Amino acid sequence: MRDDPAPGQMDFVRNSISRIRGRSRRCLLTGTLTGLLLLLSGSPALPDPTGGALARGSAYMGIGVLAHDGTFDTAPPPPRASQIEGVDVSSYQGDVDWPALWGGGTRWAYTKATEGTYYTNPYFTQQYDGSYSSGMTRGAYHFATPDTAGGAAQADYFVAHGGGWSKDGKTLPGVLDIEWNPYGDACYGKSKSAMVSWIRDFLDRYRSRTGRDAVIYTATSWWTQCTGNHAGFGTTNPLWIARYASTVGTLPAGWSSYTMWQYTSTGKTVGDHDRFNGSQEKLEDFATG
What we know:
Blueprint: H1 7-20, H2 29-40, H3 63-68, E1 84-89, H4 98-103, E2 108-115, E3 119-120, H5 124-133, E4 137-143, H6 151-160, E5 175-177, H7 192-210, E6 215-218, H8 220-227, E7 239-242, E8 260-264, E9 272-276, H9 280-288
Parallel strand pairs: 1-2, 2-4, 4-5, 5-6, 6-7, 7-8
Antiparallel strand pairs: 1-9, 2-3, 8-9
């Protein structure tokens, strides 16, 4: 039997729950609370909202950041005219009201396409094509599960199911979402060197298939924990940093700046909100390659 959480742990849970509200009508508060309590007590996997282990395919960009990073800040970052608002979505959001997001100032979007070599987002077409139709620059991301298949195999699966790139000025390069494992061991059972090799295999294959370097989405604390703060990708792969605070904080080794920043998991309308570190013109240049 587990001991009751300490008061400080309960404060963390309450603060985290307040950040998680609004993610989705599918995420029940009771399930989220149970998940955080299990994480605090050492459970290796997040529960789903109805109980039991989280089902494969259910992960989304930032799921591990919510549970592990602990960098929550009550103050959102101040608006910046030089940064362009974006959003990332997955099957949790279902059919997205893209015109409403466009009307609210969102100008770019990423949609979860795949996970591992076993899952494709059933809402991908509505989300990916809908963002494009609304006028946004759009892209796709892959949730990595290095414990289920090799990096090259997962890159192939991603490209085959919506993760490709075209030089049309409206399609962003694919993203490798590499973060804490929601289904088990934080580093997917890999040593630091093995994790770096897995990431390199994914990135090399993605570039060979598309002609673009994939974006790496991660959190500095995970990168340090699971790659040993490897500095070898900063000169080739753009960084999408995850940190729910008023500043991005320290970046992973190898990167002197970030391309995108996921700054909150409580989007004003739907999904997680993000910023592109540049003007609209820079965003279009980034899409064009």
